[in-house]
Design a protein that fits this description.
The chain is built from 8 helices and 52 strands. The protein has 1010 residues and is mostly beta strands. The longest helix has 15 residues, at 26-40.
Length: 1010
Amino acid sequence: MALATGAHAQAAADDSAQVDEIVVTGIRGSQMRSVDVKRREASIVDAISSEDIGKLPDVTIADSLQRIPGVQIKRDAGEGATVNIRGLAQVITLLNGEQYLSAGNMGSAQPNLLDVPSQLMNSVVVYKSTDPTNALSGITGTIDLRTRRPFQMEPGLSIAGGAEGQRGERTKENDYLINGLVNWRNDRVGLMVSAAASKANLGNNSSGVVGLSGNNDWGGSAANNFISPHGFESFHREVERKRLGVNVAFEADLGEGFTLVAEGFYAKLDEYNRAAGINISNRWDGGAFGVWTTPTVFDNTGQTSTGNGRPWVAVDEYDINAWWVNSFSVNRTTKSETKNYNLELKYDNGGNFTSEVRAIRANGDRLSMNGQAQGDLSNWQYAPGRFNLFRDPNDRTRGPFYPAAICAQYPAAQRSNAVVGSAGGCYLNPNPLGYGANPQLHYNIGGAKAVWSGFDNPLAGGLGAGKTLKDYMANKDSYAIAAFSSEGNNEVQSDMNVFRAEGHYKFDDNFLGFITKIDAGVRQSDRTVEVEAFHLFSPFYGGTPGAVQANGQPVPAAGCFAQWKAIDVVMNQDQCQAGEFVPNPLGGAPVFQGYTVNKPTKIDAYNNVIWMDDLGSITQGIPGFWVVDPRDFDDVKSFQEKVFGAAVRYQIPGATYDVTLKEQSAYADANFEIGKLSGNVGLHVIQTDLLVKQNLTGATQNYGDTNLDVGDTVTRRKYTDWLPSLNAVYDATDHLKFRFAYSKTMQPLDLGNYGGGLSISTADCGTKPGRCVTGASSSGNPYLDPWRSTNFDGAVEYYFGGASMVNLSAFKLKIDSFVTGGTTTGTFKDEDGTPRTVNVTQPIQGDGGSVKGVEVGTKLAFSDLLPDGGFFSNFGIDANATYSPSSESRLGLDGKKLPFTDNSKYQYNLVGWYQDDKWQARVAYNYRTDRLSSVTGSSGDNLAVFQDATGFVDVNVSYNVRDNIVVYLNGSNVSGEIENYYVKFADGKTQYFSQNQFEPRYTLGIRAKW
């Protein structure tokens, strides 16, 4: 099998007949092909190559890419997902040399490779400098995913396949992966079909802050600024991923130098992101902000807020006056599929001129829906300084109110008073067996984990004297459903059409004495993304006998619609009401009383429940509790239709948009050779037409947090970029190369940065009835400029042996324009019409950013160094280190510029391997230093959350049972690495924020080929 051809650049693959056959397979063969790619290319590249059919070096494509210098990945449920190159997410993804539409980046720039089965890939090439013949180039790099094609295989029939069983240390589910390839070819025609299908259940635990804000942001009057968040959560999450990928390729030699290639690549991903845990919070109640948490152990950070002049402190321990303790279940279900088609006609008759004409058609759809339930332990009775549902100051027995038909479903003893409404409605106690006072808890984050205490303190409530919060948590009948909801849903549809034509002329005698070849091409790309964000609303109280609105008119026949099917939502807001008239406690005159949306509902009334008593090693002190099984929301729309009769999409205007991006481009480049100096110089011209349709945001919809759509705004823009590039290689000797590269690059923003609109957030006012505005965000601006950069690269490479080399490279990226986060203010009205000025977060234009650094690496096959070394010649090493500091315009609390998000200053990879005639073994270690995770504006400051350094260890061992049969064992994250997040105030002054704990996973498999 001529495995070498699959590892070359796409243009080089056409010359496979001229390449000597390489029969080295396995890890050594993979390293050999990767070295060969780097040696041959004029651009600065790195590559990973398959060890065998269906086997990249790691479990996922992203996991393999992290072994490359300068490439950093982010994990999702423990699997490698998104990819940065040299610290930035602005990376182009290609499939066989053309733009790839994947479910993970239909509207974003950053590659997300979760839906792409690695078993279908032959190799992956990472361009770090601009190759002028590439369709597109990212700001910091370009990833080209290479599948197999029929003519790369041996003549005749070839069959390969594999199967494996997978298991997580925590989830203990029996997962699987199967893949296969069938190829047939002769000298003129070839057809290949390959497919991979898998199911994986991935477990992780999480603990930490929910909603970051500063104490004095929310009306706190403490002398010091301290983090007083909305709440704290600890939960166990299991993500089930079902993948299916199919690749079909047809090649035909049409004669006279023409070759036809037709390909289809299909990827489908069904994901169920199920989390179950406990929430301790202030319920977003305005009266609790800044006062429900009291720091007891803290350290002055030496930093003073620029917003209010008060000093910041880093807290190690809090006393928590818990306004709300509830178990919760969340299930985000995402179903996506993409189809990419390629039709390509190549001409190469052995002469000087060659050409290609290529058409790409791609489309994709992704539907992401969220379902959740809260199991509340409170009885919601009134007491000062406590969240309650009995808010009438003249009669504290008046809480949730329901029509007669619902009242009849509960015993008379559950009525909170004898008041009867005009149509027979009544007041009900929502959770008689719940606790009746705020639990007093203690939160210690001074060590390596979150440690809770106070659950054994006696607590008043429906279980009687002497019972503790632990007792309430253990009693299933002490839970009532606080809310059902389905929010933050979105559906994305994307289409892409590309036409591309290129020509190449190779001179027999160098033109002008040094030009060996010229290339030129044109390209037309049309990409459309339609995003609809929505919540599910359900109707209530339509057709209820005697139900009226506040003006005495009947409730609309369809009822009033609510997003939150919650025990604290009362249908008395301004757009639609449902209720009855009751006697005023002062004087007895009739007054309107709205119905409560959610009737008193036990946690197991509509749901299966599970007992949760293990939140992993990162959380200590929380006793076991009951929680709704998140699997009940695998189809949340059907669930809500079953319980509430209907579930209707209500569009979120601020997150719904259409963007059409058209690019017309042309390029020309010349390959040159002057003695030992060679390379290429080129110019890429791109004219971009941008059409953005946004929705205008109106008032907040009753009984939810979405806004009314009050119209559209359409923006059209056009801009042109002239992007020169230069790649130069000096072959000092047969083994030593010096490289230099220069380019200007441009990449469009995430399309949401163009199309997103304004969203307004509200919460219970606390001090007055109704909803109050708490903040706003604008996620898009069509007038933002794209990312633009000027890049410089230099490298020294020394090659010795077929699979060994060392390299040193340096790079500098001057980021001329980029997008970052900013904060302004806006004035919006509360539900009662009172204007309120709040912060508005929004993307803003940044400039003056930079990324620079150094990469050093080596690939060593000891057989190249010790050809007669016997046992020791079976070993090898792949090691590299990257130094990539970065900075952008925002400042942290310490007054220093923040780095770009998710960029580690240092990264190290160390891979050791062994291969003989029967055995292969590999241990891989990846280490990244701290990186910026997110930034929240508070009190005029930027509170920066950083992720601490991480080190992941993966291992695999395989045994060749026969020449064509291999059995293997893989271990992923065998050390059980924990991701730690912290808030940074100043050098050496940090505070615990949250933790993620991923489970180790193990795989046993078999591969065979004929």
